[in-house]
Amino acid sequence: MFNSSMKNATFIFLLLAMACLFLNGCGQPPDSDVTKNPRYFFSSFADTQWRTRTKTALAEMKLYTGKQVMAFVSPRLFDPKDPEYMAVPNTYLHVVTEFPPGAIIRINQLIQDHGIGSTVWVIVSLENETNYQTTNLYLDTQFLANNSFFRGPVTLHRWGVNSNLLETVTNSP
Fold first, then answer.
1. Strand 32-33 relative to strand 49-52: parallel, antiparallel, unpaired?
2. pLDDT digits (tens, 9 = 90+) for 28-76
3. In the chain, what are the domain boundaries?
4. How does pLDDT run across 106-151, given as a tens digit for each residue?
5. 64 contacts 117 by C-beta, under 8 angstroms
6. How far is Cα 1 from Cα 5, in angstroms, rounded to an integer?
7. What global pTM score does this model have?
8. How far apart are alpha carbons 61 and 72 in whole angstroms?
9. Distance CA 67, CA 23 (A)
10. Which residue has the higher pLDDT, 95 or 15?
11. Letter string b/e over residues 109-140, b meaning 16 or more CB atoms within 10 A of that residue's CB
12. CB 165 within 8 A of CB 142
């Protein structure tokens, strides 16, 4: 009897230890830059510039991990007048400043999230603003065209932009 109850206690202890490790993360690897990884077809999209067609905002955003980041967001996340508006609690998104149409962004990197979210993030910089953090901004996926990495089930592997929100930057002579 003692032997059987000891085995049960050991088994329960091991189960609890495994659950604790699982719930607290098992030392997940840090996020990684996959900009040049051929699996993502992203390298030709990196280092491109785009001008906004609508107002936008710089916002403090809380990721699912609790990490605070700065993000460049579309009106759907902050403007109640936008037809696609999604109310986001202030604990997850806080607008720092709004920009009128014409802000210029540069697509910089594609970051692979190795956490439970297992998603990719597009990182941009603001090219024509100097009063705020202008680099390493997480880009709201609304700015991007549908592809297999966002908003499935789409089979396109091409990267592009949502032409309702962004247009190509052209240099004037």
1. unpaired
2. 678 889 999 888 888 888 999 999 999 999 999 998 888 899 999 999 9
3. 28-168
4. 999 999 888 777 788 899 999 877 677 788 999 998 998 876 665 5
5. yes
6. 6
7. 0.76
8. 9
9. 17
10. 95
11. bbbbbeeeeeebbbbbbbeeeeeeebeebbbb
12. yes
The answer to whether the beta carbons of residues 58 and 70 sit under 8 Å apart is: yes
Nearest Cα to Cα of residue 61 among 73, 49, 53:
73
Cα distance between residue 161 and residue 122, in whole Å:
12
- Report phi then psi at 58, rounded to 5: -100, 130
Instruction: Write the single-letter amino acid at 61.
Output: M
What is the rounded distance in angstroms from the CA atom of residue 78 to the CA atom of residue 98?
9
Task: List, in order, residues 6 or more apart from 66 with CB less than 8 Å away.
Answer: none
- What tokens does 143 get? 């700015």
Give dist(CA 123, CA 138) in Å, integer. Answer: 5
One DSSP character per residue, the chain reads -HHHHHHHHHHHHHHHHHHHHHHT-S-PPPPEE-TT-GGGT-TTTTT-EEEESS-EEEEEEE-TTS-EEEEEE-GGGT-TTSTT-----TTTEEEEEEE-TT-EEEEEEEEE--STT--EEEEEEESS--SS--SSEEEPGGGBPPBTTBSSS-------B-TTTEEE-----
